[in-house]
Design a protein that fits this description.
alpha+beta, five-stranded antiparallel beta sheet, 7 helices
Length: 262
């Protein structure tokens, strides 16, 4: 069952982020590479509350209804996760990238316990025919990650191809397949795989068409806590839009303008 509440003043007043800068230089880097890391941006309090919330989502997963799983519809199962959808800090970041007219698309738990297998290479769709309509994912890496331990891997410039069907089982398949002979559309450099590191509390912003994957979480490691929030400019359907009709119809105060498809 999804959970309902009014967004409390305490939730909205508590800062999510520490100090950061997002201006024309940072926007240019995001647009060139397809992703941008804000190291350690989440406050300590935000990290603590997110871990509690994600553990709550995990507990509810045992009795999940097929098609309405807490992992995919995470904000419908936890009050704190829901409260972040329209948090001023979250919306300020999303609108700095996309402009004022945005919609919330989904909130998904990406918790990876120790030993979790690698996630293959993939990209996501949205508005391939109208490039002006953007779609971003904002990842909260509460635990951070190392490049060889549950880390995110990317291909800078891959988002500029606006290819929703990038798929590869591993790095070799990617380099011999989709990547082969491709160059960055802006720099002219050959496309290359980049393995990222992120300090605890880091935030990663990524354009939806960016190719990415995740490396194995080591068997002797710890649980990697992460949650992703997605926002987009309205104008096209979204395959990733995981919002139940019941939740959309009974929108919490503060979310009404963010929930509609269009």
């Amino acid at each position: 069952m999804y959970k309902r509440h009014w967004l409390g003043e305490a939730d909205m007043a508590e800062a999510l982020f520490g100090d950061y800068q997002f201006g024309s230089e940072e926007k240019a880097l995001l647009d060139r590479d397809g992703h941008l890391i804000f190291p350690g941006l989440l406050t300590a309090s935000t990290c603590e509350r997110l871990i509690v919330a994600l553990r709550n989502v995990i507990r509810q997963g045992a009795g999940a209804t097929k098609g309405h799983e807490p992992q995919r519809f995470s904000a419908e199962f936890d009050d704190y996760l829901e409260s972040l959808i329209a948090h001023p800090d979250m919306l300020a970041l999303a609108r700095a990238i996309l402009g004022d007219d945005i919609r919330w698309d989904h909130c998904v738990s990406l918790v990876r316990p120790k030993g979790t297998p690698a996630m293959p290479w993939h990209s996501h769709e949205y508005s391939e025919d109208v490039p002006e309509l953007g779609f971003i994912r904002i990842f909260f890496y509460i635990s951070g990650f190392a490049h060889d331990d549950g880390g995110l891997k990317v291909i800078p410039g891959s988002h500029l191809f606006r290819d929703e069907a990038i798929r590869a089982s591993d790095d070799e398949a990617m380099t011999r397949g989709w990547m082969q002979d491709k160059v960055h559309p802006e720099t002219g450099d050959p496309l290359a795989i980049e393995y990222l590191d992120a300090a605890p509390g880091s935030v990663v912003v990524m354009w939806t068409h960016a190719a990415h994957g995740v490396v194995l979480r080591k068997p002797d490691s710890t649980t990697r806590y992460c949650v992703v929030y997605a926002y987009r400019n309205p104008g096209r359907p979204s395959q990733a839009r995981w919002i139940t009709p019941e939740y959309e119809q009974k929108a919490t105060l503060g979310l009404q303008e963010l929930l509609p498809l269009y």
